[in-house]
Amino acid sequence: MGNALLIQGRRKERTLLTRTDVTTPAVEESHLVRAAQQGDRGACAALVERYWDRLHRWLYHLTHDRHNAEDLTQETFLKALGHLDSFQPGTNFRAWLFRIAHNSFLNQRRQKGDNRQAMPEPMTNPLDGPEEQAQTREGLEELAQAIGKLPTELRAAFLLRAEEGLSFRQIADALGLTEETARWRVFKARQKLVQVLAPQLDGESP
Fold it and tell me: For all residues of the chain together, what is the average pLDDT?
């Protein structure tokens, strides 16, 4: 119950975070994890703040549903905080956390079936004019649609590489794969995206 209240409180504060809040050195993260394992609620809160947005964004791209991604993100943190004693010091906490999220996503998909959802809404720059926003939105929509058409296993690996910047070893740890398989999935995802987007790119050539 305490972890649930902690997570709900941090959900309200997460929009105040900046990019630098989630990119502090790994050594500081190891101290946070160790403190959280010893019951430090402040350390638990800091870990939730650090990873909530990026975990939610990844799950949103997998589910294509904002509320679903929100539920899975909360479920992931509840499981992670409830099983911190099982995390092995010296291993990658981020990969461990994303693996919990991936397993939760797979469990939910098995229970509900793989129903297709609406595509995520692309973001435009509010400083652009109407024409620039329209062009940007159109390009992002094409990319979002292309990513959305990828098989789930390719999409999960590709987004961990493209958005999270995880190494192939970390992707393998997060998804329960060999490093070779993780590398292959990212390669195949890129290959498929090029095949899908190539006609649009050719059509823009003068």
Answer: 76
